[in-house]
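re the bet — no i am not wrong, look at it urself. input seq straight from the record:
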Amino acid sequence: MPATEFKMPPKRIANRLMNALRGGVVPRDGAEYIAVGRSEELEAILRDVEVIEDGGATFRFIEGPFGSGKSFLFSIIRSHVTKKGFVVMDADLSPERKLIGTHNEGIATYRELVKNMCTAARPLGGALPLILDKWINEILFSLKSQGLDEEAIDAAVSQEIYHKCSSLRDLVHGFEFASLMEKYYIAYRDGDDGLKDKIMKWLRAEYQNKREAKSELGVSVIITDKDWYDYIKLIAAFVKMAGYAGTFVIMDEMINLYKISNKTSRQNNYEKLLSMYNDTLQGKATYLGLIMGATPQSIEDTRRGVFSYEALRSRLESGRLATTDMKDLLSPIIRIRKLNNEELFVLLERLAQLHSELFATNRTFKTEEIQYFLGCELGRVGAEDRLTPREVIRDFIELMNLLLQNPDKSVKAIMSGNGFVFSETQIEDIDSKLIGESEDEFSSFSL
């Protein structure tokens, strides 16, 4: 098979990408350089882009087993939508970060979302101050282009901000949010970094009580565990007002809701999830896309999963018409399919090119060598059910690193000495699992 076209990422991104994949995680940027086999899922999400740009809201679950590529897909989505002018907020749920809890677990999730807020200009997170300053600068530029003098501009800016923020006042807690946006301009104009820091502290939900917020900012509300999602909707509306296309919120690791041992607490989280789901589909949220990452068990288990909450199950459960061959990618749940052997081959080929460029080696992987490695991986006992792209990538990077440090070794020598165990049926069928066939030494896969 001929080499596929490959665009080498900048070295700093290539380093992050290789180090992250070697550690079994996905970096915040760069995944698109080696992406293969996710065009259907990505196309489904990109349909949501149009809905959100028109002022709507969407809600999707991305379902797949551990290591199947959910985080990889999220990284690609993040890259695609930020390039289209969207803001992305993302967080992994955990025992300390849930949708709601008795120890501010919901607030912890909100803080993580705000911390990881990113744009095309700030892909690694921390974009909220940049968004606020960009908004004010665009207002100032627009008014200065009208030929107003400095005194007139100051009054005009205040009036323009009041006018723009008036739409926010119709939302829950919108009045307080709008008043803080007006205060942020004053702090920006006067160079008052202390006031800006206090406003950012409020937006990050770091005030412990209302009294403190009232004393420092003159607002009588703070972001709490029960209403943090209302502020996500406010931020989405503000982001649109600031000139962006909309906001995507990505929350992965829903398995941590499934793992909540207390049934009441678990059901409370599912009730919060239902509220968020209803908000998006009933028009109570605008310019907002929500994406949740989950394993099949965390959704479909009727004892502890999302489907244990009847109101959610009745909304999310698939009908009887969709099949494995005909998936409904417009449904709320997008089930990630397994990469086929050809797609795995192309992925490994791109990783080989990336590794060679990154370490400036003269060694290039032959097609037959990648086929041999892939044959060993696919032929392992239990690979059909348990082998994931994460494991294949990890093993291949390790193989490339070993070859780099031991140039006298061959792919076959390294693979043959690592105890791969094949089942009898897999030994007989292994050639059919590969892309093409070769007549040289790599055609034989019995170890």
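see?? The chain has 20 helices and five strands. told u. also The CA atoms of residues 95 and 440 lie 52 Å apart. so pay up
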